[in-house]
UniProtKB/TrEMBL annotation:
<feature type="compositionally biased region" description="Low complexity">
    <location>
        <begin position="120"/>
        <end position="129"/>
    </location>
</feature>
<dbReference type="InterPro" id="IPR000424">
    <property type="entry name" value="Primosome_PriB/ssb"/>
</dbReference>
<dbReference type="InterPro" id="IPR011344">
    <property type="entry name" value="ssDNA-bd"/>
</dbReference>
<dbReference type="Pfam" id="PF00436">
    <property type="entry name" value="SSB"/>
</dbReference>
<dbReference type="InterPro" id="IPR012340">
    <property type="entry name" value="NA-bd_OB-fold"/>
</dbReference>
<dbReference type="GO" id="GO:0003677">
    <property type="term" value="F:DNA binding"/>
</dbReference>
<feature type="compositionally biased region" description="Basic and acidic residues">
    <location>
        <begin position="149"/>
        <end position="166"/>
    </location>
</feature>
<protein>
    <recommendedName>
        <fullName>Single-stranded DNA-binding protein</fullName>
    </recommendedName>
</protein>
<keyword id="KW-0238">DNA-binding</keyword>
<feature type="region of interest" description="Disordered">
    <location>
        <begin position="118"/>
        <end position="172"/>
    </location>
</feature>
Amino acid sequence: MFETPLTVIGRIVTDPQRRRVGEQEVMKFRVASNARRRTGDGSWEAGNSLFVTVNCWGKLATGVGASLAKGDAVIVVGQVYTSEYEDREGVRRSSMELRASAVGPDLSRYIAKIEKHGQPGVAAATPVGAPGGTSEGADAVDCAEDDRADGSHGDVQDGPGDDARRALPLSA
């Protein structure tokens, strides 16, 4: 089977719905990605919109359920496919769905504190400029470090200029 990768940047437009399928948990929500462009007079004009249903499975479903809600700006990466169904009138329809491999807050709009699965608390994202939010850069980002005995930081590689603050994936 061919899998088509897709990255969608947009806002969650439905309340995430949690359900169980067999032994697995799934979170399902819709994301809208809206294009806009600047006109000749400098004002903004609405462009096309993409609406996609996102399905998150396993640990990703847990992280999304604990961290994100309707209205949040997100970046979603996954495999896209079409789902066909019949509507109430019996008309055959199809919709685009995305089986997510990663979902996170859009950090161009939020400052996020990252917590690993199993740590107390919930990952939180604060909009830039909101109370508690800031736009001061790396010093404003508080990232959890891996507590391995050897002091390593999981998949994060040390490089020139790295300090104790490292961005970790939400699903780490």
